[in-house]
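User: Teach me something about this protein's shape.
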Amino acid sequence: MAKVHPNTENRMASATGVRPTRVRYLVLMLLCSLACLTYLDRICIMRVQGDIERDLQLDRLSARDEQTLAAKGLANDIDARAKLAQDRATERMSWVFSAFVLGYVLFGLPGGWLADRFRPRAIILLIVLWWSLFTALTGGVKALVGLAYRRPEPWVFLATMVLIRFLFGLGEAGAYPNIARALGRWFPFRERGAAQGAIWLSSRFGGAIAPTVIGSLVVVAGGWQRAFWILGATGILWAVLFFLWFRDRPEEKASANQAECELIRAGAAEQESIYQDEAPIRVPWARLFFSSNLLWLYVASFTAAFSWFFYVTFLPKYLKEQFQVDYSHSEIMTGLPLLVGGLACLAGGRLSDVLIRATGSKRWGRSLQGAVGLAVAAACALAVSRTDSAWAVILIICIASAFQDLALPAMWSASVDIGGRCAGTVGGCMNSVGAIGAMLSPLVAAKVAILWNWNAVFVVFAVSYFLGALAWLRVDASRPFLTPK
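Assistant: First, the predicted structure itself:
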C-alpha cells in the first residue's frame, strides 16, 4: 500500500504554487444531508407505531383469536384480551417493519450496480424522488384504502401499509451504495474512513432526531398522516437541489481546481481502482458471491444489522411493555442510542484512517475496530437482559450502539477498498445481506418476545454480535476484489 504523507495538501501547494480547493468537503456536506434524510424517513415510523396500530386497527382481534379465548374460557377476561391484542399489534407491525427491509434487500445490489454503471448523480435523484413519494403515501394509507373499501378489515390496512413500506424500501436501498461510490470518487483513500464516519454520524443523527421531529410534526400538522406528507415533500425538494449542484467527478465541477483533482488521486490510482474512468467494467458475479473475503464482510454486515435494527423498530414498544414508559415520553430515550452511535461513527472513521497510517496495514486498519466493537456490543446485549431499570437499559444500549458503530465507517470503506471500480456493486451486495439480517430482526424479536420475553430477545442479539466479531477478524481490505488471489 502506498503511503501518503498526511500533509500532502500543503506539500502540493508548496511544490506547484497552487493550493488545492476543498470542494470535496461541500460534496461531503451534501451527502451527509442525504444520509440524515434517509434515517429520518425510515425511523420516524417507530415513534408513531402506537398511533398507526390504533388508527389502522392493527390491535383488533381476529375471529380465530376470539375462538381461542373462548376455548380457554377467557372471552370476557379483560387482561387476557388486552394482552392478546397487544401481541397481535406487535406481530402485525413486525411485518410492516420487515416489508421495508425486504425492499431494501431486493434493490441493494441493483442500486449499487446502477451507481457503477450510470454514476450516482442520476441514480440518487431517481431513488430519492421514489422513496419520498412512498414516504408521503405512508401517511395516505387510510385514504387509499377508503377509495376501495367502505368498512375495511385490519388485514386490508396491514396489506396496504406493507406494500407501501416495501416500495419505500426499494428506493432507500440504493442510497448508501451510491453515497459510497460518490465519496470514493471525491475522496482519496486515506480520507475515506473519516468521510464515511461523517456520513454515518449524519445518518445516526437523523435517526436520533426522528422521534422528536415526527412527534412535533404530528402536533403541528394535526396527525401522523400529515407528518409523513411533509417529510415526503422535503425529500422531493432535496432531490431537485442535489441534481442541480452535484457532479459525479471532481473534473466535472468547475469550482474544483486541478490541484484538488490530483490530490484526490494521489497515492491510490492503481489499475482497477475507483479512480479509473474508462467504460464500466463487467462485474465478475461469481467472485462477488463466492469470494471468501467478501463472504466474511457480508457476515459482519448481517450480524450487526440483525441486532441493531431492534433499536429503530421495537425499542419504544419494549420500553412501554417492559418499563411502562409511554411512547410520548420515550422520544429522547429512543433517540440517544443513535446519537451516541453517530458520534462513534465519526470517531471510528478517523480511527480507521489513523490505524492504517500507523500500522501500514489496510487490513487491520479496517477490521480490528470492527471485531472489538461487536465483541463489546455482545457483552452489552447480555447485560441488558439482566437489567431492570429503563434508564440503565438505555445507558447500556448506548454503549452497545457506540461500539457497534465504530465499525460502520470501516465496513463501508472496506467495501470501496475491496470493490475498486465495482465499489457500488460490492457495497450494494454487502448492504443487501445486512438488510436480510435487519428484515429478520423484528420478526424474530416479536416471536421470541411472545414465546418467552424481551430479555430473551437480547440474548439472541448478543449471540449475533459475537458471530459478527469473529467474522471481522477474517476481513482483509487489502485484497482487491478485481485481482483474484
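Now, about its shape. Residues 1-6 have pLDDT under 50 and may be disordered. The chain is about 75% helix and 0% strand. If you'd like, I can walk through any region in more detail.
User: That's plenty for now, thanks!
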